[in-house]
Amino acid sequence: MAKTNYAEQIKFCDDKIAFYKAKKAKLKAEQQAEEHSEMLALLKENKITATDLAIIINEYIGVNKTTDKEIAINA
User: Fold this and answer.
1) Count of helices and strands (H, E) across the chain
2) What is the DSSP string of 8-50?
3) What confidence tens digit (pLDDT) does each residue in 21-66 have?
4) What is the pLDDT of residue 1?
5) 48 lies in which domain range?
6) Fewest Cβ atoms closer than 10 Å to its Cβ: which of 3, 25, 34, 47?
7) Which residues lie below 8 Å from residue 74, measured CB to CB, with a gap of 6+?
8) Structural domain tally of the chain?
9) The whole model's pTM is what?
């Protein structure tokens, strides 16, 4: 009967989990970069204002507590 090395199996599984977490994070970062570049392109083409962009970004990251005055100051 083959001797089972549980420590090696656990390390193998941990390595696989780490690999897939890193892959998922990379894909998410690439997607966000693409979305942000699209928004910046619209801003450069004057199709949206800086205030509109600030509102979109705040909603995207889940920060809906920003007032219009704060958006105007930050834009």
Assistant:
1) 3, 0
2) HHHHHHHHHHHHHHHHHHHHHHHHHHHHHHHHHHHHHTTSS-H
3) 999 999 988 888 888 888 788 778 887 787 887 787 777 766 555 5
4) 46
5) 13-74
6) 3
7) 54, 66
8) 1
9) 0.47
